[in-house]
Design a protein that fits this description.
With 190 residues, this protein is of the alpha+beta class. It is 70% helix and 14% strand. The protein has 2 helices and 4 strands, in the order H-H-E-E-E-E. The strands form 2 sheets. A two-stranded antiparallel sheet has the order 1-2. It has a two-stranded antiparallel sheet with strand order 3-4. Helix 1 crosses helix 2. The chain is rod-shaped and about 190 Å long.
Length: 190
């Protein structure tokens, strides 16, 4: 900012002005009193001009200062409004980001919870199926043992379109006969 200074008084030595004026104006036929009056008049006009210039500069400086203050106040209000708007926008964005992050975490936790419940349900179902299958296998093993006890370990085999009866390893055929139209075979231990 430029600072205006009041003008300094001219450094004219009025004592020298009077003899010079006397020489100049004396040659034109003016008397010493007239020259003195003229000098005083010039001095008075110089003082008035100095006062007027000082007053005009002071008024201009004051007007310039007021204008600068108005401009600064206008700029300050604009900057303040911009800062306030930016602050509000940042707060709004922060709030939106918080809500977005919170909802993302909520969906993530809900997804994990649903996945864990689903896995637990699948494991429970498979555990029940395995338990039922084991119980069925155990029943079939018991039925197989009962059948093997009832058949004395005999097994039936079909190979190349022919049917065979397999006897247990520790048994052998001893006698064969017919009863009610059926073949009967007696087994005995080896």
């Amino acid at each position: 900012m430029r600072v205006l200074r009041s003008p300094e008084k001219p450094k004219v030595q009025y004592q020298l002005l009077t003899p010079m004026a006397a020489k100049i104006y004396g040659s034109k036929g003016l008397s010493m009193n007239e020259i003195l009056n003229l000098t005083q008049k010039l001095e008075q006009q110089s003082k008035e001009l100095q006062q007027n210039t000082k007053q005009r500069l002071s008024n201009e400086f004051n007007e310039h200062t007021k204008s600068l203050q108005r401009e600064l106040e206008g700029s300050q209000s604009i900057i303040s409004a911009d800062i306030h708007a930016l602050t509000e926008e940042l707060r709004s964005q922060a709030s939106t980001m918080r809500l977005t992050a919170l909802s993302t975490w909520a969906y993530l936790l809900l997804t994990i919870f649903i996945a864990l419940i689903s896995i637990q349900g699948v494991l429970w179902y498979q555990g029940n199926q395995i338990a039922q299958n084991l119980a069925t296998i155990e029943q079939q093993n018991q039925a197989l043992k009962t059948l093997q006890n009832q058949t004395f370990g005999l097994r039936l085999l079909t190979q190349d379109g022919k049917q065979y009866i397999l006897f247990p390893k520790n048994k052998k055929l001893s006698k064969q006969w017919e009863s009610n139209g059926q073949n009967v075979v007696e087994m005995e231990n080896k």
